[in-house]
Design goal:
By secondary structure, this protein is of the alpha+beta class. It is built from three helices and two strands. The chain has helices at 15-19, 28-36, 58-68; strands at residues 3-9, 40-46. The protein starts with a strand and ends in a 25-residue tail after the last helix.
Length: 93
């Protein structure tokens, strides 16, 4: 079953975050590889600017995704931007 839109956290995890009791999430490459292997119509990096001290540059995701999965679509919204998703479409693979 295809996935219309996948919002994947990219803010990562590392020793500095663990030291501050922040468990963390996937990093940008892990997130890109996950959605790159699934039937996703649109990949959207998330959590990159959600929490102070737990951020990531979304262009790391987009550059990696463009190179490794050139036929896949992605979208990066502005921090705090509201998104409304209407289902029922997906990219042909």
């Amino acid at each position: 079953m295809p996935i219309d839109v996948a919002f994947v956290p990219i803010n990562g995890r590392d020793a500095e975050r663990y030291a501050r009791n922040i468990i963390g999430n996937m990093g940008f490459a892990e997130a890109a590889d996950l959605v790159g292997q699934l039937p996703v119509g649109l990949a959207c990096p998330a959590h990159w600017d959600m929490f102070e001290g737990n951020r990531e540059d979304p262009t790391k995701f987009t550059r990696y995704y463009e190179v490794k999965y050139p036929d896949q679509r992605y979208w990066v919204g502005a921090g705090g931007q509201r998104v409304i998703v209407h289902g029922g479409w997906h990219a042909e693979r």
